[in-house]
Amino acid sequence: MTNKITELFNIKYPIVQGGMVWVSGWKLASAVSNAGGLGLIGAGSMYPEVLREHIQKCKKATDKPFGVNVPMLYPDLEKIMDIILEEGVNIVFTSAGNPKTWTAFLKNRGVTVVHVVSSVKFALKAEAAGVDAVVCEGFEAGGHNGREETTTFTLIPMVKEQVSIPVIAAGGIGSGRGMLAAMVLGADGVQIGSRFAATEESSAHQNFKNTIVDVKDGDTHLTLKELAPVRLIKNKFYNEVQELYQKNPTKEEIKELLGRARAKKGMFEGDLDEGELEIGQIAGLIHDIKPVKDVLNEIVEELNSVNSLNFSF
């Protein structure tokens, strides 16, 4: 079976891997693409020339489609976009910014553009900007979420009701049952982040991967809304953030505590105390670290085993 997402990206399964900072390098992206999904390189944690290196390595590792995720709150966007075009990447996911900024520029050069949104309002703005699809990311997700705290399974049908372009569900999905539920509610495909963070090909530090496996329900919390909302595992740094909030801090004081490279310290370097550990609520259902191919196959097999609505692949 094919659908709007498999046709849009020319992939086997309507499963997109989240372009997570410090996690989504070329090894993860190529592995997901080789397994039948759409792999994304996470440009948010990469200098422009590092991104170029990852794109080139990904092209050597897979002959399947892959893309780049570009959070628009980071610097060097012009250089990043130029490198994406120079290297012939024709799928770009944009997030954390105004879709009008880059959509026309990319589409005029033959690039398929998808934008990540957290509300119906922003989904409509993305459609008006000309994107080919939207990722609707709910409150459950890790990474930079919306401030509205709308859950994925509430957001999907509301967006589906209002837009005509394909809808990809994200946030709280890490299994075939979750994928089926999202598609029953109107999603044409899913984007999965946390489950792929805990794979052998993920570029996350082993300490972080092990911590993901240990996470239980209630061990994460959406915070730092004054800067960019992010769901964090409750560790020493998280506790320091909460203690600061008790003092009614200014945005500058929060920035001072956050400092620089806090996510790199936690997710890439493995500092479980002082680092920022971003992960979704679905981590409570992640119990092992295994190859991407096995994860993706399990998701598809579970989807087909519980599916009674003919979403068969």
Fold and architecture overview:
The protein is α/β, with parallel strands linked by helices and 313 residues long. It has two domains: 4-203 and 283-306, Alpha-Beta Barrel (TIM Barrel), CATH 3.20.20.70; 206-281, no CATH class. Helices cover 41% and strands 15% of the residues. It has helices at residues 4-9, 26-34, 48-61, 77-86, 103-107, 120-129, 152-162, 176-184, 194-197, 206-214, 236-245, 251-258, 262-268, 292-306; strands at 15-17, 39-42, 66-71, 91-95, 112-117, 133-137, 143-144, 167-170, 189-192, 220-223, 230-233. The strands form two sheets. An eight-stranded parallel beta sheet has the order 1-9-8-6-5-4-3-2. A three-stranded antiparallel beta sheet has the order 7-11-10, with no helix packed on it. Helix 3 (48-61) packs parallel to helix 4 and helix 8 crosses helix 14 (292-306). The radius of gyration is 18 Å and the shape is globular. The model has no long low-confidence stretch (mean pLDDT 95).
The shape, in one word, is globular
Low-confidence stretches: none
Can you identify the CATH superfamily of the largest domain?
A: Aldolase class I
Summed up, the domain count is: 2
Please tell me how large the radius of gyration is: 18 Å
Give me the side-by-side strand order of the main sheet. Answer: 1-9-8-6-5-4-3-2
CATH level 3 topology of the largest domain: TIM Barrel
Task: Please summarize what this structure is.
By secondary structure, the chain is an alpha/beta fold. The protein contains 14 helices and eleven strands. The chain folds into two domains: 4-203 and 283-306, TIM Barrel (Alpha-Beta Barrel), CATH 3.20.20.70; 206-281, no CATH class.
